[in-house]
Amino acid sequence: MKTAIIAIGVAGLLASACATDPYGNSTSNQTVRQGAIGAGLGAVAGAIIGNNVGGGNAATGALIGGALGGTVGAVRGSQADRNNQQRYRDNRGQYYYCYDNNQNECYWENGQRRY
């Protein structure tokens, strides 16, 4: 059981460490949040399933479940982050993205902060 708990913790850390926000926006980064949640839920489900399957190993199930859950959660969170972006064009025709309605967190297409 100790191995399963360690595997669950490692899977969650690995999943949340793999996703970064290139725009430096820490408040609305759904990719990391949903990836970590998916990894945790997948690791728990994998440990339970791996333990209940005849001859299965809970630690292996937790690692596989954590990896799959983290991947699915990160993909879903990435889509949510894209939906939260608001795209604008300035008077020179250059596009920039904002993460809030007040346009306080805006970035050019190359990822540099607009202001």
Verbal overview:
The chain is mostly helical. The protein folds into two domains: 2-84, no CATH class; 85-115, no CATH class. It contains three helices and three strands, in the order αααβββ. A three-stranded antiparallel β-sheet has the order 1-2-3, with no helix packed on it. Strand 2 (95-98) and strand 3 (106-108) form a beta hairpin. Helix 2 (30-52) packs antiparallel against helix 3 (58-84). It is rod-shaped, with a radius of gyration of 19 Å. The model has no long low-confidence stretch (mean pLDDT 75).
Essential attributes:
115 residues, mainly alpha, 2 domains, 3-stranded antiparallel β-sheet, 3 helices, 57% helix, 17 kDa surface antigen, signal, Gly-zipper_YMGG
Report the sheet-strand fraction: 5-15%
Round the mean pLDDT to the nearest integer and report it: 75
Work out the number of β strands: 3
Residue windows where pLDDT falls under 50 for at least 5 positions: none
N-to-C series of helices and strands: HHHEEE
> Biggest sheet: strands, sense, closure?
3 strands, antiparallel
The separation of the N and C termini measures 51 Å
Label the structural class: mainly alpha
Helix content: 55-70%
Total domains = 2
Across the major sheet, the strand order is 1-2-3
How many DSSP H or I helices? 3
The general outline is rod-shaped
Radius of gyration over C-alpha positions, nearest whole angstrom: 19 Å
Keywords: Signal
Pfam families: Gly-zipper_YMGG
Signal peptide: 1-19
InterPro entries: Gly-zipper_YMGG (IPR027367)
